[in-house]
Design brief:
Two copies of one chain form a homodimer.
Chain A lengths: L1 E7 L1 H4 L6 H12 L3 E8 L3 H14 L2 E5 L10 H8 L4 E3 L1 H13 L13 E3 L3 E3 L8 E6 L2 E6 L3 H16 L6 E10 L3 H7 L1 H6 L4 E7 L2 E10 L2 H19 L3 E4 L4 H11 L4 E5 L5 H6 L9 E6 L3 H8 L3 H7 L4 H15 L3 E7 L14 E8 L2 E8 L4 H22 L4
Parallel strand pairs in A: 1-2, 1-3, 3-8, 13-14, 13-15
Antiparallel strand pairs in A: 4-5, 6-7, 7-8, 9-11, 9-12, 10-11, 15-16, 16-17
Organism (chains A, B): Clostridium bovifaecis
Family (chains A, B): Belongs to the CinA family.
Pfam families (chains A, B): CinA, CinA_KH, MoCF_biosynth
């Protein structure tokens, strides 16, 4: 089966919003083993929309259209499709009731024009919308299939997974199973160098590297009869990659650094405290992203001023005078001071120049010192980061969390 | 002139990356007053790429292609275009020299296949790449124009602005000038209701609302001979909208809430401190996003545990026992305690249930109390938020900052 993705909406055409729906659907179709050769975008214009359907069905068996299911006159995706297939739309009373109930739930009056969202041909397969008012539908005509999904990504994704995927899997004789390995502290080119032969020679599964801000991911994808068989193909390759990359692999699939780290801390009952200057709370904010963290996160200090560094986390005034607030010495005292003030096993600290101002020749923007105190021992690390204020602060957080993770693993804390 | 945007690349087609280039280009072409009726995406496949050029030039005068200018055999965008127009590519020695110099600068050996990036027809208009190795080009053939830009967004945007815009403006007799108003504390439907007649009747300028996470933006766009004339058209409409929406308009264009708030605090020399429970540092982290904030941000306390609430910001144990950590009473004491401990004019606090666990019937997930202390007076506010942990924490930060902004404005602090 060959599919294509058609986004309908002037707001995408004019660049008001990014077409993230196309990426989501393309990615999922690849996983389902359905070929996609074209994406396109067309505005809320009946003539060009009809031409777009025509073109798409010349090239493909399955067209997935997103957007244009709203209640207004501009919303034409369904109407043009019904006309294209010569199908008459009739009111589906049960759908109308759902829409009325939706408005009751959110305590808003229903507009008369919302009735149009309950109009579908008799033989259409309805896809319910559990996150909004507009249902979607599947229309089969000969060996051509049109699926119409709503535009808002939250509604679209839920409907795609709940209704369209179960419909599509029956056409497949094989599926794609994939697993993503997440890597920190190693650039994409270095990763590619270490597993060069694997990237080059692997056919099934394939391995694709992708660089994101501050991390690299490796996606291993196997084509197989079912998920069990797919995972069997992936396992030995994953083992080999993990062997070569070692500690740099911090997690898999949707796991996050703070989740991986949080689990280690909670399972080993290691309490933690933070003292932050340049990151200003983002480090603590990130650690606390992990819901289970409350049993070990003692407290955080945002010591942006010199006075608070002295008063809260016991940095010595002479250290600040002699080495400055942005120094390895200050970072060390902040980390130790935070742990001791909070009565925690671990203290983490950050101090640096996030810019845009404040840099000097000796201490340029992007120079950051981070400190780590674990049970009596204190270490520091110098980071030289590039980018704007936001990026420097975010990269400091990621680097610091990854550093703690590595230090714990080195000490056999897992 | 009618344009369309063609993205070339299997990684977009398969949904590995989002086609943000299309959004950027579409948005800029709208500002330049160039009509766009289609976007499309095609993979690195010579046959389908040729068909895509053919289709695009049947519909449009200007085709802007992105991606596929790299050094590998997969990169075909230029090659297929030259063939499509029947033009022979020759080596441009000066471009080859640039590429060699680029590699020298980043201290890497140049691959033999990078030579291909210096191949262009004799009559192509070259667009230099100051951020990578692949130059772009413009090919004119009759009244058809093809512009080829590199795929990496950073390279694409720079080349678009530096070379393609200056080329395109000569075709324009008018430009689009736009201004965005940013609104918080009022939903999209409420905004639309208040300015319903303006949304309905305005032709030039037009006004388009757009809902983002936690805020609403209104984009006012005027078509005019030049920027001065455009701004003259925008001004009276902007004034009218601001009159009607009042304090809800917090900023314009690219300004952020923390920047707007930060400026008020710094200009009025109002010092601030924070005490955070559920936001865990994100509130301080957000305030500190504004680079000028260091003169007024005194310190932040991440008091995630009850002990730290008592010890650092002087919450009374009996308050915690009687009302609980998530209560208006605790929020009030945290805000006051933070301000007093730090010696600040203003104290802001957050305490709530961010989930996914920890909710009860009486205090469900999403219940958050925020506190505000200003010079002797303390207020609290109850928020009932929906969404996941991350969203609840982010919305708490946005609501709290906007609340402080409004309170300051109400007290004539601007």
């Amino acid at each position: 089966m060959r599919a294509e993705i058609l986004a309908v909406g002037t707001e995408i055409l004019l660049g008001n919003i990014v077409n993230t729906n196309a990426q989501y659907i393309a990615n999922r179709l690849a996983e389902l083993g359905i070929e996609v050769y074209h994406h396109s975008v067309v505005g809320d214009n009946p003539k060009r929309l009809k031409e777009a359907y025509d073109l798409a069905f010349k090239r493909s068996d399955l067209v997935i259209a997103t957007g244009g299911l709203g209640p207004t006159k501009d919303d034409l995706t369904k109407e043009v499709a019904f006309e294209y297939f010569g199908k008459e739309a009739v009111l589906h009373e049960n759908l109308l009731k759902n829409i009325e109930e939706f408005f009751k739930k959110i305590n808003m009056p229903m507009g008369e024009n919302n009735r149009k969202q309950a109009l579908f041909p008799k033989d259409a397969i309805i896809m319910p919308n559990n996150n909004g008012t507009a249902p979607g539908c599947i229309i089969e005509e000969g060996n051509k299939i049109l699926a119409v999904l709503p535009g808002p990504p939250r509604e679209m994704k839920a409907m795609f997974e709940e209704s369209l995927v179960p419909y599509l899997v029956k056409f497949q004789d094989s599926i794609l199973v994939s697993k993503t390995l997440r890597i920190m502290g190693m650039g994409e080119s270095k990763v590619a160098e270490i597993i060069d032969d694997i990237l080059e020679n692997s056919k099934n599964p394939t391995v694709a590297p992708y660089a994101k801000e501050g991390e690299v991911t490796l996606r291993i994808t196997a084509k197989a009869k079912d998920e069990v068989k797919g995972n069997e193909l992936i396992a030995p390759l994953e083992r080999e990659i993990r062997n070569r990359l070692g500690i740099a692999v911090y997690g898999e699939d949707d796991s996050t650094l703070e989740e991986v780290l949080g689990k280690i801390l909670v399972e080993n009952i290691l309490t933690i405290a933070t003292a932050e200057s340049c990151t200003g709370g983002l480090l603590a904010g990130s650690i606390i992203n992990y819901p289970g963290i409350s049993s070990v996160f003692k407290e955080g200090f945002v010591t942006y001023t010199n006075e608070s560094k002295v008063e809260r986390v016991n940095v010595r005034k002479e250290t600040l005078d002699r080495f400055g607030a942005v120094s390895s010495e200050t970072a060390a005292e902040m980390a130790e001071g935070a742990a001791k003030a909070a009565g925690a096993d671990i203290g983490l600290s950050t101090t640096g120049i996030a810019g845009p101002g404040g840099g000097t020749e000796e201490k340029p923007v992007g120079l950051v010192y981070v400190g780590l105190y674990i049970k009596g021992e204190v270490k520091t690390k110098e980071l030289n980061l590039i980018g704007n204020r936001q990026r420097i602060r975010n990269m400091t957080v990621m680097n610091t969390l990854d550093w703690l993770r590595r230090e714990l693993l080195k000490n056999n804390v897992k």
